[in-house]
Amino acid sequence: MKMVFVSHTKRDTEFCDAFDRVCARVGIRAFRSEFETIERPAWKTIKDAINKSIAVFFLVGKELVKRQDLGDPEWRYTQNWIAYEIGVACQRGIDV
């Protein structure tokens, strides 16, 4: 089964769930880190999942925008992961 990597904030649950349903309808597995076993170091598990994916989708939902607009410190943590995930995908030539 083909897999796509989903870069997101776990706070946008409804948006991510809707994306998962669309993927399932067309026979694609969506990798969402909160539903996966993440072994230490986390960056390695994420990198491996991206390398197994045919594409990386960066989901921008209401909560992500809200956290960014508020200057929430949690946004910086999320921003770092997004940058890493997109960087790995680009380095491997995987569509983002």
Could you describe the 3D structure shown?
The protein has about 100 residues and is of the alpha/beta class. The protein is about 55% helix and about 10% strand. The chain contains four helices and three strands; from the N terminus they run βαβαβαα. The protein has helices at about 15-25, 40-50, 60-70, 75-90; strands at about 5, 30, 55-60. It has a three-stranded parallel sheet with strand order 2-1-3, with helices on both faces. Helix 2 (about 40-50) crosses helix 4. The longest helix has 20 residues, at about 75-90. It is globular and about 40 Å long. The mean pLDDT is about 85.
How is the topology of this model organized?
Layout: E1 3-7, H1 13-25, E2 29-31, H2 42-51, E3 55-58, H3 62-70, H4 73-92
Parallel strand pairs: 1-2, 1-3
Helix pairs in contact: 2-4
Sheet bearing the most strands, described?
3 strands, parallel
> Can you give the mean pLDDT?
86
What is the terminal separation in angstroms? 19 Å
Gross morphology is globular
Give the topology string: H per helix, E per strand: EHEHEHH
Unreliable stretches covering 5 or more consecutive residues: none
Structural class per helix/strand content? alpha/beta
Q: How many strands?
A: 3
> Helix tally?
4
